[in-house]
Write a structure and sequence with these properties.
With 300 residues, this protein is mainly β. It contains 1 helix and 17 strands. The strands form 4 sheets. It has a 6-stranded mixed β-sheet with strand order 2-10-9-4-7-6.
């Protein structure tokens, strides 16, 4: 296997050796993240097919996939980083490759967007990995002579539906900048994200006073709450943040019995946009046996 230049993708990251990056300005071959076999898809090879001097993941350097969200929201873009650092003496040359894979079937998932970003490119997988896309370095993104740490930034857009757990696989090369594929260190790393638990939450139990789940949820600009009151009276619908602080009072005052609705435009009481995150809408009144609460996610 001839030397290659670093490229990057969201779930797998691969770093190439110095000579490869110099010899091939188009970047490393696709499908070299070392992703394990699962869901009927074979394991991917890694860069040690060519850079064999040291064992995989030997002491001296680290590869990280940063800013992977614990939970993802459908059709939402996340900015991720791939970082490499080392304790090796002397300047090195760096490379990586990253990809995103759906746990349930081993296929590539989500969309990579590198518009306006430099030193990286997106390539397609091949063979058993044809559905996977990879972000990897180009020759301009190998940081020649840099002692590290080095970082590559990329964007990944989640699928538009709940597909369960998603893995990110990466490979990286801390090359010794010797213009050959000997003396280089290869590393692999992985991380994962799951669908937000709110999207799997069961519907609320029906009762005399009902606050229905917001629609849409998650939302970006506005969302609506429908409710049913068993009797007329003083009622308040309030939005709280995850720390229990009041963010917005949608209404407070007399409301007739029956169905009603209220809209939240994603702003606080002072008119400023609320931050993206999980919020709680609480419907309460003097005649309520207990307040009724629903969770809502604001995605920016």
């Amino acid at each position: 296997m001839r030397p290659w230049i670093p490229r990057s993708i969201v779930v797998a990251v691969l770093v190439t050796g110095t000579s490869l990056a110099i010899a091939n300005s188009t970047g490393p071959p696709a499908s070299r993240t070392g992703a394990p076999a699962f869901a009927g898809v074979a394991a991917e090879p890694n860069c040690r097919d060519c850079h064999v001097t040291f064992p995989l993941n030997a002491a001296g350097a680290t590869l990280e996939i940063l800013d992977v969200p614990e939970f993802y929201l459908p059709d939402t873009t996340y900015t991720l980083r791939v970082r490499m650092s080392s304790t090796f003496a002397g300047g090195r040359r760096w490379g990586f490759q990253v990809t995103a894979v759906r746990a349930s079937n081993g296929q590539g998932i989500g969309t990579f967007n590198i518009t306006g970003l430099t030193g990286i490119q997106v390539v397609s997988g091949f063979g058993a990995f044809a559905t996977r896309r990879y972000v990897e370095h180009t020759s301009a993104g190998t940081f020649p002579g840099n002692l590290g740490p080095v970082e590559w930034t990329l964007r990944w857009r989640a699928p538009n539906a709940n597909v369960g757990r998603i893995y990110f696989f990466a490979a990286g090369n801390a090359a010794n900048n010797s213009n050959s594929n000997t003396g280089d260190h290869i590393y692999t790393q992985q991380d994962s994200t799951d669908i937000h638990p709110l999207l799997d939450a069961p519907p609320p139990l029906a009762g005399p006073d009902v606050l229905e789940q917001a629609a849409p949820n998650p939302f970006r600009s506005t969302t609506a709450f429908s409710y049913t009151l068993s009797r007329s009276g003083a009622v308040e619908l309030t939005i709280f943040d995850a720390q229990g602080r009041v963010v917005r009072r949608l209404f407070s005052g007399e409301r007739p019995a029956g169905r009603g609705s209220a809209t939240w435009d994603g702003r606080r009481d002072d008119g400023a946009p609320a931050a993206a995150g999980v919020y709680h809408a609480r419907l309460s009144g003097a005649a309520f046996r207990a307040p009724v609460t629903q969770r809502v996610v604001l995605a920016r």
